[in-house]
Amino acid sequence: MKKILLFILLITCALNIKAQNKVKWMNDFLEPHIAFETNYFIGSPTISDDFINSYFDGDFLNDTIKNEVISKLNTYNIFGAYNNFKLSFTRPIELSFADHFHFAIENRNTMDLRVNDNLFKLVFNGNEQFAGEEIEISNNHLYYSGFSQVKAGFIKSFYTTRFDHTFALIGSINIGTTHNYININNASLLTADNGTFIDSKLNAEVLWAKNNSDEKIKFINGLGGGIDLFYHFECDRGNNFSLAVNDIGFIHWFEKHSTTLSTDTSIYFDGLQIDDILNISATTDELNADSLKETFKAYTSKSAFTTKLPFSIQAHFSHDFNDKLSVGAGFMHVSSLAAKPFYFADLKYQVFPFLQLVPNVSYGAYSKFAAGMDLVVNFNEYYCYAGSDFLTSFLNSDKFTGTGFYFKIVKKFNGYEKSSFRPSTIDMP
Length: 429
What we know:
mainly beta; 14-stranded antiparallel barrel; Porin; disordered C terminus; single chain
C-alpha cells in the first residue's frame, strides 16, 4: 500500500534536490557590474527540519519523528525547496531607448508540494490506521521543475532635480531539463475492516518530462520564452520604491521525452489467494497486480505539453535616514504555487566603511516567523554578500522551521558605490 501511495505522490522525483534558498530578490539593474550568486532553501511551516533532513538523507524515520510531525499537521500542508546558480552582467550603452544592457545565465530547481494530513499519514504509516473508514485525499499536488534561463534586456533611467525613475525590460530563453507535475483533484480510499480489500477513487493529472536515454546532450528537453519587468523610484528625501514582475513565460516540453496521464477512475484490489506457497499458479503479472504503473498504462501517452512559469510579483520600499542607516519592508507573491505571500522587513547599518550588517525578519512563503542576518563586505569595487534568513531555526529547531543560505560576489564598474542589492526573499520559478 505504501508503494502505491508513494507512486501517486512521486516524492522520489525530488531526491536529487537537497536545496533551495531565497534568491535575493532585487536584481542589480541600477549600476554596471558582473556578479555570481548561489542560493539554497528547504522547509515547511508544519513539517520539521529534522524530518525533512532525515528523509532526504535517506535516514530511518522512526515513529517518534513521524508522530511528532503528524501531531502538528494542518488539514493541508506545504513544503518547498529551491536552489539556483546565476551569473549576471550589466554595462552602460548609448541608445535612444536605453542606457544600460543586462545579460544573465541562470540554472534553477524548484519543488513545491501541497499534501493533506490523510495522505501524509498514509504514505508514512500505511492504511491500517484507517481500517473500516473512507478518507478523503483530495487537492494534493507536487510541482518539480528544473530549467535554465538565458536573459538579456535593456534598462532606461529618467532623472529630474528631485526624482529618479528606472525601467527595465528583460527577455528570456527558457531551457527545460526536468518537469514533474502531479495534481490529485479528487481522491478517496476505503480500507476494509479486516484489511481484505481497498477501494479507491482517483481523479488526477500527471505531466512528466525527463531524458533517461544514453544521449550525450540530455539537458534540453523543452524550450520556451518569457519576460521580466522592473521599475525603481528614488527621491531626494531618501525614499526608494521598487516593483518587479518576473517569469511571465512558458516552456514547451518535447514529445520525445514527455509523458502525460489523465485519469478519472476507480481501483478495487482484494489481493491474491495463494493456497500452497510452494505451488503458485499465478503469473508474474498477477503477482504485480497492485502496481499502479500497470494499472495506469491505459491512461498514459507520450505527448508534448506546455507549462507556464509561476510568475512572481515583488515590491520593496526603503527609507535612507543617512549614509549609514536605512530601513525597508516589502512582500512577494508567486502564482500557481502553494507558497503563501511572503512579507519581510530589514534594517541596514554601515558598521565600518567595508562592513554592513542587515538583520531581517520575515513571515510566509514556506515558513512561519523567521529572523536572520546578512553581511555585506566590500573591498574597493568588490562586494561580497552572505547570510541566512533562518537563523531562528538554527538556534531553535523545535519552534522555528526552514533552512537556507545565500552567497553572492559582485564586481562593480566605474566606481559605483551604491548597490540595488536587497538581501531578502524568495525568487521562485
